[in-house]
Amino acid sequence: MHPILSLVEENYLKAIYHLSDAGKSAVSTNALADNMNNKAASVTDMIKKLSSKGVISYEKYHGVNISEKGRRAALRVIRKHRLWETFLVDKLNFNWDEVHEVAEQLEHIESPLLIEKLDSFLGHPKVDPHGHPIPDKDGKIHEVKQVQLSEAKAGTNGIVHSVNDGSPKFLQYLSKIGIRIGARIDIVERMEFDGSMEIIIDDKERVFISRQASENLLIRERP
Amino acid sequence: MHPILSLVEENYLKAIYHLSDAGKSAVSTNALADNMNNKAASVTDMIKKLSSKGVISYEKYHGVNISEKGRRAALRVIRKHRLWETFLVDKLNFNWDEVHEVAEQLEHIESPLLIEKLDSFLGHPKVDPHGHPIPDKDGKIHEVKQVQLSEAKAGTNGIVHSVNDGSPKFLQYLSKIGIRIGARIDIVERMEFDGSMEIIIDDKERVFISRQASENLLIRERP
DNA sequence: ATACTTTTTTAGATTAATCTAAATTTATAT
DNA sequence: ATATAAATTTAGATTAATCTAAAAAAGTAT
To answer: Are B66 and B75 in contact (CB under 8 A)?
Structure first.
């Protein structure tokens, strides 16, 4: 009768998936507590529960790893989140910095029919408004080779592909200086002392951006 | 930080609104327990809580009445429910018998911006796929004068305006015999012994429908 | 290798929403 | 008008998700 995972459990699982870099490394209790804005004691309780449901494996004092079953469940939630974000921007004219909170709610709506119909309605999009890939029905993700702007060398250029930080403040800043998904970036110079960069956006604006900003911008490099 | 009403409280309030015929009569503990598929004891606890929040008034042993504040909150949820149903049918090609359960989930998404943008996207619809009026932003409802088909006299005709029973089974039955919102119904004869009726649908099909069915079909009478 | 620090877990409480069983109040039928 | 029935409330428990404070384990630095 009840879904296999509660809303709270889904949120924990999503956090574990992201923090483990899609399942590549273990996640500590404290990292999870930080991420969920909960206390470590609460996390310990929850990971016991998730472990008993088989979506993670857990060894006392040594963090958790997501299981295949858990990975699939996490990807279903992520698929929903990204499809809803796409809907909000493409159909309802939300700005890209306004969608995250609403999508955090919508991602928990349980209806396979709804999500497949939404996917069709949107034309089977491959990426969300922040450039993140949308997992398909079977949890497959089409990963595109991309690098942090901070890693690009002076004289090279690339196309903005996605953002690592989806916070409204950061996205509003990007919009303000003219950076959006698909924009062309030419790297003029990289300041060694603080990692900031001088770049040209779409052959027009020449701006300086901080190391922090450049680390959260992912580009597809071009020859 | 938290919404004023929890998801569960919203559902109770909606049930109270509907059971009280939009605030016209008091609702008993048992009626509410039945409707919510809960035990009376649980309802007693909940109505104390709702009462302390000022959305209903409650006198021990004498049922509850919805307050103005409660009515507004209930109408906000109903507005969302009906807008989402409209979205599902008009945009995602759901059938009218498939939308209720999903809308029961979607109606609790909290985002005034979302609901106003959705309303625009749908072209400010006045009724949902079952013919029920959609309250506007201020909780105003455009009520249309309509009667139960069971009350119509032989020889008269009317346009199907809404259904009182939104269950998949009933709606599928209606679709099967060719009744949809907007269909023309001519009443041929009303059988006094069991209240069943012989009707003609859209000048084509001549069918018999039970008293129960005719009581759950609302029509706008025509001269 | 031992002592100190950090991380994690355990123990015990709390809140929301539910339940069962018992007690109480209201309604009904002779 | 009183007994019986029906409806409602109270009392006490339970589960999910959280917390604080204390205990235990793991990591680190000399």
So the answer is: no
Give the 3-state secondary structure of residue B4: coil
E-state strands within B112-215: 147-148, 157-163, 184-190, 197-201, 205-209
A4 CB less than 7 Å from any atom of strand D: no
- What stretch of H or E contains A161? strand A157-163
- Name the residues contacting strand C (CB < 7 Å): A 28-31, 40-41, 43-45, 47-48, 58, 60-63; B 6-9, 37-39, 41-42, 45-46, 49, 60-62
Alpha carbon A143 to its chain's center: 12
pLDDT at A187: 95
From the list A131, A137, A106, A99, the residue with the least C-alpha distance to A119 is A137
Give A57-71 pLDDT, tens digit per residue: 999 999 999 999 999
- Cβ-Cβ contacts under 8 Å between A and B: the total is 42
- Phi, psi at residue A5, to the nearest 5°? -120, 135
Nearest to B117 among A93, A101, A113 (CB): A93
Residues with pLDDT less than 70, chain B: 1
DSSP state of B24: T
Half-sphere exposure of B173 (CA within 13 A, CB side): 16
Cβ neighbour number for residue B36 with a 10 Å cutoff = 17
Distance B31 CA to C24 C1' (A): 20
Q: Which two tokens stand for residue A6?
A: 């509660």
| Amino acid residing at B123 | G
